[in-house]
Amino acid sequence: MKLFKILLIVMLILVFACDDDYIPEEEPTIATIEVVLPDSTTQEPDTPEVPAVVPPDEPVTVPVELSNVYLSGHPVKSIDFENDYVWATTDSFLVKLDQFNKTITYYPYPYTDQNGSSYNLKVDKNGEKWIARSEYLPHWSSIYESHSSSMYRFDENQWTKVKSIGYGEILSLAVDKNNNKWIATLGNSGVYVIKQDSCLHYTSANSGLVYNSVEQISSDRDGNIWLYNYGNLGGLISADVSMIRYDGDNWISYFLGRNFYLVWMRLDSQGNPWVQNPWIIQKLDTANISWSEITPLDINEHLRLQTIEGDRKFWYTRSLNLKGNGIAVYNGSDWNYYTTSNSNLPSDTVYQIAIDSFGTKWIGTANGLARLETIP
């Protein structure tokens, strides 16, 4: 508990020590798109024996058995779904798992250096795969400039790249009803929106954002974009907070006053935004513009909200003593905990939990992709 508080204070001091001479731009800026790697279509190999632990040099499809764990030996950082396919990113390749035809396809990335991590993956409405990649810069001047961030688009034949969307690690990625891609990065830098072949940069000066800090973005079932927007930091943990909903035409702000600004936001099946900080999880009551259904959390668990099943079952990653310690599940009244010691989880270090349309849980871990059909 004491160690966690010390680390939290050190982290927040670093944030306040960053360069705060940010000047919002008057108009959205444009970043060009370029083709970086043409690729042949996926081909069936001469032999099916291509182990998951070997990164491929070119796209290759192999048969697999229905399993509880895929991609053993590889950290799986992000997951998304497309019809019957499960897509996942590792640090070395992109993967398409066809769980009905029982095949898996490996797609190598168009870059060869390993200084970056692909933590965010989204499949858009045209079936194109978007991967957010943040490359670590060893000689950064502030925490806001510690990464160079780019977006890669893949249509299963060809990779394209947004040349640059600035500095700061990419934290959130969402697709709206108009198929625009929304990107939030660490720092006082607004949001980036990829529309067709251009990348717009929105700040409080040229959009409906109230403040310039946005680190959490989600898209609801109707394709509206929700942004956790904050500014005017005070003390070590508080800021002025506004929840923004963008419906494709209008920016609607729900001002919530002073609140914790280091949070995790997810939407339930009804489209209601839930926000979790180290102490509590709470739902936004849009009618009364207030927090409701507040549930206290055990700060010693170091929980991070990953996804909401239905409208009231919460899935968290769990890191006791700042080390990976599996999953915590809360159903509104009871807590259940799952680790490698009491389940088929391949690693206690968990990066993402996602739930497909059949209710199957897909869990990206440091040692592969876990598949759980049912769990108490």
Descriptive notes:
- The chain has 376 residues and is mainly beta.
- The chain has 1 helix and 30 strands.
- The protein has one helix spanning 2-16, and strands at 33-38, 60-63, 69-70, 78-82, 85-89, 93-98, 103-108, 116-123, 129-136, 147-154, 158-162, 170-175, 181-185, 191-195, 198-202, 213-219, 225-234, 238-246, 251-260, 264-267, 273-276, 280-285, 290-296, 303-309, 313-318, 327-330, 335-338, 350-355, 361-365, 368-372.
- The protein has a 5-stranded antiparallel β-sheet with strand order 1-11-10-9-8, with no helix packed on it.
Return the CATH class of the largest domain: Mainly Beta
Rg over CA atoms, rounded to whole Å, is 20 Å
CATH domain fold name of the largest domain: Methylamine Dehydrogenase, Chain H
Structural class: mainly beta
The H-level CATH homologous superfamily of the largest domain, spelled out, is YVTN repeat-like/Quinoprotein amine dehydrogenase
Which terms would index this structure?
30 strands, disordered N terminus, 376 residues, mainly beta, 47% strand, Methylamine Dehydrogenase, Chain H, 5-stranded antiparallel beta sheet, 1 helix, globular, 2 domains
Describe the structure in brief.
The chain has one helix at residues 2-16, and strands spanning 33-38, 60-63, 69-70, 78-82, 85-89, 93-98, 103-108, 116-123, 129-136, 147-154, 158-162, 170-175, 181-185, 191-195, 198-202, 213-219, 225-234, 238-246, 251-260, 264-267, 273-276, 280-285, 290-296, 303-309, 313-318, 327-330, 335-338, 350-355, 361-365, 368-372. The protein is mostly beta strands. The strands form 7 sheets. A 5-stranded antiparallel β-sheet has the order 1-11-10-9-8, with no helix packed on it.
